[in-house]
Amino acid sequence: MIMLLYLPASFMHMTDILYLVYAALAVSHISYQLYYMRGLAKIKPPDENSLQHEGVSVLIAARNEEKNLRNLLPHLFNQEYPLYEIIIVINNTSDGTHDFLIGQQKIFSRMRIVIIDHIPDHINSKKYALTLGIRAASYDKILLTDADCLPASKLWIKKMMAGYGNDTDFVLGFSPYRQKNGFLNKLIRFETCVTAIQYLGSASNGMPYMGVGRNLSYRKSFFMSKNGFNGFQKITGGDDDLFVNKNATSESTSVVLDPDSIVISEPVTTLRGYILQKTRHLSVGRHYKLRNKIFLGLYALIHLLFWAGFISSPGFNLNPVVIILIFTVGYIPFIAGFHMLNKKTGNYFPLTLVIFIDLIFIFFYIIVGLRSLFTRKIEWTS
Question: Residue 10: is its pLDDT beyond 50?
Answer without folding.
Answer: no
